[in-house]
Structures are given as structure tokens and as C-alpha cells.
Design goal:
Elements (H helix, E strand, L loop, with lengths): L1 H22 L1 H25 L5 H13 L3 H19 L6 H8 L1 H12 L10 H24 L6 H12 L6 H18 L6 H8 L2 H17 L5
Helix pairs in contact: 2-6, 2-7, 3-4, 3-9, 4-6, 4-8, 7-11, 8-9
Length: 230
């Protein structure tokens, strides 16, 4: 009886969550838009810290330095390249959030960088300021990623390709391993293009999971779906 009761409670909870997801579209759209505004700001904080960015940004910043294009333009170019295999292999990943991630993130980061980089305080920042920028960048990255994922409106091509490869392997290659390999490739390209690879790159590649989960449970899910969401 207890097992049956637990199953019923689990099914009820799942149905309630699905109902909330379908009925909170306005909040979800606001969440993913806000997440990308915040994420673009976090990218710039990491960039100004001179400790390195996340692997995808590291690659795009490297290519931007070599090509003379802006970071935002490079993000759009790489996303347009990556969306081709995503569209061919599994179109279910192509949703509203995919377009937001493809076209908004880089341009928003360019806006924040143009606004902040000329300020005298960021001209040769001392170590204490760099550490503050690093800490702020990591926290805001995790918070924005939490809202981005919790909105359940899809993901960018760079995030989707790892899930698709893992699923295509029949589960033999876990997503975590696929993502590590993709991140290593991105960092290698960035490093070859003289992008900064440092502590920030390592932290954002390997150490953000627990903080994102904390924000999921304490901030983004309750705000989007209500206090009883888990």
C-alpha cells in the first residue's frame, strides 16, 4: 500500500509540474530573456577579470581576436554552424529558447562590454578587483544558467549537441563525458587563437553544478512555478 501511495504521489507531483510548466508561459519567457541579459553581463565580468571565460566564450573570444569580428558576431556564426547537426539529428531541441540563445547572448555581451570596458577602473585592474569580477561572474553565470534551464523553453546549439550525442550513443557515453570533450575542444580552439585560459575557465567548466542546483531549488523554480516547485 505504501509503495502504491508513493507512486500515486509521484505521478500527481509530476502532473502538477507539467501543468505549471504549461500555464506559466509568461514567466518562463521573462525568465529566459532575463537570464540572457544577466548571462551576457556575466560573460563581460569574466572577460574583464582576465581569469578566462567559460569554454564556449573562450573559443569565441579567441576567434574574435583573430578575425577582428566582435564577440557577439562570432557567437552567432558558431551557433549557425552548430545548429546544422542539431537540426539534422534531433529537431526537438529547436525551440524559442534556442533562437534567444543563438542571437541574443553575444549581442547583449557586446553591449555590456562596450559600456563597461572604457571605464578607468577596468584599465589594468589590480588583483583584488579581478578576484571580485571573477566571483561576481561565476555567481551571475550560475544564476542566469539556472533561470535559462528552469524556463524549459529549449537550449542553445552548444548545449543541445552534447545531449544529442549522448542519446545517440544509447546512453553508453554519459552527457557529462560528452560535454567535457566538447569543452576541451572549445578551449583548445580558444587557446590556439590566443584567448585567455585560466582559473575562470576551469571553474566555469567544472565547478558550477552545485551552485546552479542551489539556484534551481531556492530561486528560479520557485519564482517561475511557485514556492512548492522542486
Amino acid at each position: 500500500m505504501n509503495e502504491m501511495g508513493n507512486n500515486i504521489m509521484g505521478m500527481t507531483s509530476e502532473l502538477c509540474m507539467k501543468e505549471k510548466v504549461s500555464s506559466r508561459l509568461g514567466r518562463r519567457v521573462s525568465a529566459i530573456l532575463g537570464a540572457h541579459i544577466l548571462m551576457g553581463f556575466a560573460v563581460v565580468l569574466m572577460r574583464l577579470s582576465l581569469f578566462g571565460n567559460d569554454p564556449f566564450s573562450c573559443m569565441n573570444l579567441g576567434y574574435a581576436g583573430v578575425s577582428g569580428l566582435s564577440y557577439g558576431t562570432c557567437v552567432i556564426i558558431f551557433n549557425l554552424v552548430l545548429i546544422i547537426p542539431v537540426a539534422l539529428l534531433d529537431r526537438s531541441y529547436l525551440r524559442f529558447g534556442t533562437l534567444i540563445n543563438m542571437f541574443m547572448l553575444g549581442l547583449i555581451a557586446d553591449f555590456w562590454y562596450a559600456l563597461l570596458e572604457p571605464l578607468a577602473i577596468f584599465s589594468g585592474p589590480d588583483l583584488s578587483l579581478r578576484i571580485l569580477l571573477l566571483a561576481g561572474g561565476v555567481v551571475l553565470t550560475c544564476l542566469s544558467c539556472s533561470f535559462y534551464m528552469s524556463s524549459k523553453l529549449g537550449m542553445g546549439p552548444y548545449d543541445a549537441i552534447g545531449w544529442i550525442i549522448s542519446e545517440r550513443s544509447g546512453g553508453r557515453v554519459p552527457f557529462r563525458i560528452v560535454r567535457i570533450l566538447i569543452d576541451v575542444c572549445a578551449v583548445t580552439i580558444g587557446f590556439a587563437c590566443s584567448s585567455i585560459v585560466g582559473l575562470g575557465t576551469l571553474v566555469l567548466a567544472c565547478g558550477t553544478g552545485p551552485l546552479i542546483e542551489f539556484f534551481n531549488q531556492k530561486v528560479s523554480l520557485p519564482i517561475i512555478y511557485g514556492k512548492q516547485s522542486r
